[in-house]
Amino acid sequence: MTERYDIAVVGAGPAGLAAALAAATHGARVALIDAQAHAGGQVWRKDVAHGWPRRAQAAITQALHHPHVTWLAQTQVVHADPHSLLLESAVGAQRIDYAALVLANGARELLLPFPGWTLPGVTGAGALQALAKQGWPLQGRRVVIAGSGPLLLAAAATARRHGAHVLGIYEQADAANVQRFARSLWRWPQKAMQAALLRGQLAGIPYRCGSVVRTAHGDSALRAVTVESARGSERLDCDQLAVGYGLVPNTELAQSLGCRLRQQGVHASVEVDAMQRSSVAHIYAAGEQCGIGGRDSAWLEGSIAGHAAAGAPAAASLLRQQRHARAFAQALETHFALQPRVRTLAQPDTLICRCEDISLQALDGYSDARSAKLATRCGMGACQGRICGAALAELGRFPRSGTRPPLFPARLASLGDNLSDNHRESSV
Ligand SMILES: Cc1cc2nc3c(=O)[nH]c(=O)nc-3n(C[C@H](O)[C@H](O)[C@H](O)COP(=O)(O)OP(=O)(O)OC[C@H]3O[C@@H](n4cnc5c(N)ncnc54)[C@H](O)[C@@H]3O)c2cc1C
């Protein structure tokens, strides 16, 4: 039987939790869906050793225990139609209908390939944090953190809290930009407080600007990295490298529903108005997929979207706070813009598509992602081009291609009876 909800919310990070809560306070019947076992999204991912931060715990308890909210954990949206979602979980597939939809499915890390990046021991910066919170042992391991943006600091703090010996944080942005960013933080007192807290937690760990990891060395596992900066190259012995160059909005679900995207450099985000309405009637979007803005912005946008989806426009004060939070996103984008150097890290024989083992030079001669994919299988693996597609766009090879169902690899049994005929034809 197809369950029917007033509002379906995809994603239970700060944006989705806020949307579900706001909508439920108006009496709407809400389905809150997330692929993860626990609510909280990326920033509030449950830490098996330390639990949730207090604010996250309160938000999660309130949303999940609200009588109007049905919590669908470990449930992935694999396909969406304008009024229904196809969900897959361990127990099988299910369809739900909705009157309004809030997309709050976040962002992923931008990984830029370089020699050695596929060695065991190399992960994204946020990915290391996620692994640590899920119990991956870091006690006594020598960790190098690199890439760009404040996420590096959060990752380093988590690694240290889990017993890692963090050797250094290597930021690609130059010192002048990072200092300008730090000086602008007075405009967002909560962020300034967070930064001060992190400074304390990271005391004694070198923070080097204008630095990139050029190579990860090792045979069957990571043994060392070469870091390049204005002062030259240095080799550091280490056990773990966590490197991420910022975040890329997860726009595939919105795209598959026909929502208009806004191009931001080589990546895109979902276009919304002040009430978080997308270009498609009754579909709202909030949080990182509308542009990388951080936790506070995601929470505010989720609240606005939840109120609006329930037919009750958000208070003017909420809209004002959201505009202020979005200005922080703009500051992040400006001061941590990627330097041209990071686009030169991949060498001709560097693997670009790690799911299908495709090197950069194997893609020479193809002018678009689709022809490269058909001829080489680049982007056809488990991540469905989410990692290599974003990297290739950043390297100036191909713009990101469109999307088609299913959104994630799914069981044939889930798709068999559930995709409409025309989608089934276009998938084979
Ligand atoms: C790996 C990683 C680690 C991060 N760590 C931090 C940090 O420590 N501090 C910080 O300030 N910021 C961090 N960020 C930035 C973070 O994304 C935001 O600040 C904040 O979590 C954004 O909230 P959100 O609700 O927009 O999205 P998210 O918190 O990303 O939540 C989106 C949720 O949608 C779910 N989802 C996505 N697609 C589907 C689907 N098809 N079906 C079902 N569920 C789906 C995901 O499982 C996820 O739980 C991190 C980002 C990443 C990618």
Give an overview in words.
It comes from Dyella acidiphila. This is FAD-dependent oxidoreductase. The protein is α/β, with parallel strands linked by helices. It has three domains: 3-106 and 248-314, FAD/NAD(P)-binding domain, CATH 3.50.50; 113-244, FAD/NAD(P)-binding domain, CATH 3.50.50; 347-394, no CATH class. The chain is 32% helix and 25% strand. It has helices at residues 14-25, 54-64, 125-133, 151-161, 175-184, 189-201, 252-256, 295-309, 316-335, 369-376, 386-394, 412-416, 421-427; strands at 3-10, 30-33, 69-72, 76-81, 84-89, 92-103, 107-109, 122-123, 142-147, 165-171, 207-208, 212-218, 222-229, 232-237, 240-244, 247-249, 261-264, 267-270, 283-285, 351-353, 358-359. The strands form six sheets. Strands 1, 2, 3, 4, 5, 6 and 19 form a seven-stranded mixed beta sheet that branches. Strands 8-15-9-10-11 form a five-stranded parallel beta sheet. Strands 12-13-14 form a three-stranded antiparallel beta sheet, with no helix packed on it. Helix 1 packs across helix 2 (54-64), helix 1 runs parallel beside helix 8 (295-309) and helix 5 (175-184) packs antiparallel against helix 9. The radius of gyration is 21 Å and the shape is globular. Residues 424-428 have low confidence and may be disordered. Bound molecules: flavin-adenine dinucleotide.
Q: Report on the biggest sheet.
A: 7 strands, mixed
Q: How many distinct folded domains? A: 3
Q: Give the proportion of residues in helices.
A: 25-40%
Form type: globular
Bound molecules: flavin-adenine dinucleotide
CATH superfamily of the largest domain: FAD/NAD(P)-binding domain
* Radius of gyration based on Cα positions: 21 Å
Report how far the terminal alpha carbons are from each other: 27 Å
Mean pLDDT: 93
> Using DSSP, what is the number of strands?
21
Query: Low-confidence parts, pLDDT < 50 over ≥5 residues?
Result: 424-428
The portion of residues forming beta strands comes to: 15-25%
Q: Figure out the total of helices.
A: 13
Pfam families: Pyr_redox_2
Organism: Dyella acidiphila
Protein name: FAD-dependent oxidoreductase
InterPro entries: BFD-like_2Fe2S-bd_dom_sf, FAD/NAD-bd_sf, FAD/NAD-binding_dom, Metab_Enz_Cyan_OpOx_G3PDH, Opine_Oxase_asu/HCN_bsu
